[in-house]
Amino acid sequence: MARAFLFVLDSFGIGGAADAERYGDAGSNTFGHIAQACAEGRADREGLRKGPLLVPNMVSLGLARAAHTATGFRFDSTADAVSASAFHGAAQEISSGKDTPSGHWEIAGLPVRFDWGYFPDTVPAFPAELTEAMIREGNVPGILGNCHAPGTAIIERFGEEHIRTGKPICYTSVDSVLQVAAHEVHFGLERLYEFCKTVRRLVDPLRIGRVIARPFLGETSATFERTYNRHDYAVPPPEPTLLDRLAGRGSRVIAVGKIGDIFAHRGISEVRKAPGNMGMFDKALRAMDDAGDGDLVFANFVDFDTEFGHRRDVAGYAAALEAFDRRLPEALVKLKPGDLLILTADHGNDPTWRGTDHTRERIPVIGTAPGLTGGDIGLRTTFADIGETVAEHLALGQGRHGTSFHATIGGHA
Ligand SMILES: O=P(O)(O)O[C@H]1O[C@H](CO)[C@@H](O)[C@H]1O
Ligand SMILES: [Mn+2]
Ligand SMILES: [Mn+2]
Questions:
Q1: Which residue, 360, 382, 380, is CA-closest to 98?
Q2: N or C terminus of the chain with fewer C-beta within 10 Å?
Q3: 219-258 confidence digits (pLDDT tens)
Q4: Which of 290, 239, 242, 280 is nearest to 258 (CA)?
Q5: DSSP reduced 3-state for 130
Q6: Are the beta carbons of 255 and 8 closer than 8 angstroms?
Q7: 177 lines ligand 1 (CB under 6 A)
Q8: 180 touches 213 (CB < 8 A)
């Protein structure tokens, strides 16, 4: 029996991207900088966490070695204690962009070779024709924002006016996104989703990667809070991905968290969602129980990115990594010979970095294949090597991009 479990720790980069300079991110290192801050006592928070970063289970899968492969960074002296059948390495992204769709699509064997559309960091950020079309076809009295902004700040700034006027708050970032924040009750959640679907259609010709619904609750600037009803409307992948290939031969692809949205629901058999990393971990464990021969469980843990990376919250990010790591044994005990578990990431989001955006970084590729030898898979030149390895493991034919490292970890050559 062969099954594969792919867990993406959203934004958990390990630095060292050869082309980071081009993104203004040379030197960024999500894992390295969090680990350093923790070691130096700069990530202590009363009632949350204290001291050095404790992620022994990921270290035993080779996280420290992966980080060393990516940048030469030494995490700690336990770095050599890697468990039998664990494999570890780092991967460089070849796609353009440093956002979620680029990272996930490349992991699934489809590097993004075209340039995404971006909105300029000007006010207004959106072309006048687009704004007019959003108002007319979205049937709203106008829009607020129309600029680059971090999501919490823009709700604080325009939330009350939004409630008063019924105008949705539309904003963007350095990523290829058009985000719409609106009040779940005053504006209405379903109405927000409908509005986003309209916007999705309008920005398709502009090659915008995602339209993101950002619902929030609260009545005043001081009390507004975003809810877990966020929804991403991604442009569909332009070519078949690993998921389509699996679905095409009748295997199940169980998507946990926002994976379904990221692939515009192409090649997805089932979507399971829950609020928060821990809820998602529960869903991932159930999905592992349910997966059969030839199936893939593809999970995304988004809190690292949304709650801590973008918020530049080092202590929060560290605590989230520690919480995830504490639960990892629950997944490890479910593994049987024939299974393959890979932990990876889609881009960086260094919480010590300037600004509030993603950072272009290499990603860790660590995991275990019980019954195989494991070992050092080195520095992979594309995230697509992950998808190709999963493909080979699940006995799919070769895809168009990437090179499987299955033989390196003792699998069929
Ligand atoms: O600041 P918030 O609204 O969380 O937005 C962030 O979330 C988007 C998707 O990850 C990024 O492009 C960034 O703009
Ligand atoms: Mn992401
Ligand atoms: Mn993000």
A1: 360
A2: C
A3: 999 999 999 999 999 999 999 999 999 999 999 999 999 9
A4: 280
A5: helix
A6: no
A7: yes
A8: yes
Residues whose CB falls within 8 Å of the CB of residue 138, separated by 6 or more in sequence, listed in order: 168, 195, 198, 199
pLDDT of the residue at 55: 96
Exposure string of 183-217, with b = 16+ CB inside 10 Å and e = fewer, is: bbeebebebbbebbebbbebbeebebbbbbbbbbe
- Cβ–ligand 1 contact at 179 (below 6 Å): yes
Please tell me if the CB atom of residue 252 comes closer than 6 angstroms to any atom of ligand 1: no
Instruction: Indicate whether residue 150 lines ligand 1 (CB < 6 A).
Output: yes
Q: Around Cβ 323, how many Cβ atoms within 10 Å?
A: 15
Whole-number Å distance, alpha carbon 305 to ligand 3 midpoint, is 5
Span 263-298, pLDDT tens digits: 999 999 999 999 999 999 999 999 999 999 999 999
Low-confidence ranges of the chain (pLDDT < 50): none
Residues lining ligand 3 (ion), CB within 5 A? Answer: 305
Whole-complex ipTM: 0.94
Q: Whose CA is nearest to atom 5 of ligand 1?
A: 151
